[in-house]
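Predict structure. Chain length: 473.
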Amino acid sequence: MKQQSSRTEEPHLSNVENPSRPANSSRNDVFPSSTPDDSSGESASQTSKSLWANLRFVRLFVAYALATFGDWFDALAIQVMVAYRWGADPLIIALIPVCMAVPGILFGSVAGALADRLHKVRIMILCDGITIALTVGILFAPSPAWLLPLLALRAMMSVFHVPAQQALTRQIVAEEQLFQASSLNGFVNQCAKIAGPLLGAVVLAFFSPQICILINACARLLSGAVLWPLRRLAEKKEPVIQSENAGEVPKESESFFTQWQEGWRYLRRSRAVRNTIVFGCLGLMSILMIEYQFTTLFRGIKPGDESLLGWLGSSVGAGAVFIILLLNRLPRLGYGWGLGGGYFLIGTGIAALGWVGPDTSTAWIIVLGLCIGLGNGLFMVTMNYLLQKETSPDYVGRVFGIQNSLYSVVLIAAPLAGGALIRSVGPSPTFQMIGLVTLAIGLGGILLQRMLWSISRTSSSVEKTGSAQQGIS
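Prediction complete.
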């Protein structure tokens, strides 16, 4: 369950909240602005069209899809190269995710501040270019001693790339189509999780791991080429205004350090955004404690059946794709139901896996995988949408950068804690406990949603326009 993400904008890149909105109107309800100002004419007319008519978004989406599929080819090849070709020690293998998480901890919030301060498309193109060079370096790495630093540097490029992508999406997509944009990005991510390893396995069956790594470099090259025409895209800054949640938007004259501090201050002031990130960290901590331990669970239950992990992974991906397609068709979705309901389904699936025995059929494993996938897709789409919608456009990069930093800490700490717990009490009891904890977190999100996400008039919702309901055909 990887963290990755997407963004949107209000009329004509300015994203100024409509001053005519009633004071008691909930920020958790998305309504098309009925009184756009004169400068918003172009964007206002765009909102009645399909999201696919927005060529800027199409370019951003295609670039994201290319990079995502390339990364999954690459990930599979690196695992094969390290474990099978080099015969590396398990400790070296365990250091791979650690090396990829450390840059997020060190530079996540800094990258977010830069994304809000500098030209976003140029940041993304530069990151793609450096990623290509580092990937070529990985292609010729002779040993893990060379591979690990290269992986860390390449992960750092992703740390700078993601906030820029999220902030740019927030600017170039109309607010009414934001949920659809988030769903499409989530759809690509889940499809890549399914198709990427399968296609990578086919390539590995006939060629060396280096070919998969080369495919990733080519995908990044195409990603940068698709973004290249947007390099001169004019990015409008939101004027300094006062709002209930956001306070003042930083001026261009402010220093980088001041803007970095303002990102953290904004997070403290914005209840919905702050609570979403904290809620996400709590659930993610539980999930990541067992995410790398499914092999341990199945090895103890059915040591002769190595296909169970494949069936579980495929069903998780299929469940996530299904719910994302469904969300594109639904007119409303409550924040509490999306976030809390997602964790509730994930927790249910994980806890049930803890009661799986040697006589359990593969069909039941697939059902539980679908349950986990439904929850994963529901949570991720809702969380990305909420952070995009409820964050002031000039703070989007910083918010996602801070989120990346905090989640990177969880990414390192949780697997270690989960491994220690499994060694102490065993795989099945650990899955049962962690599943029930995740389920309880999700149930708490549903019951306390009015407190956590500040619903004032109606249930927190995502209300999409007719163009968004076109969904994914």
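Summary: Residues 252-459 form a domain with the Growth Hormone; Chain: A; fold (CATH 1.20.1250.20).
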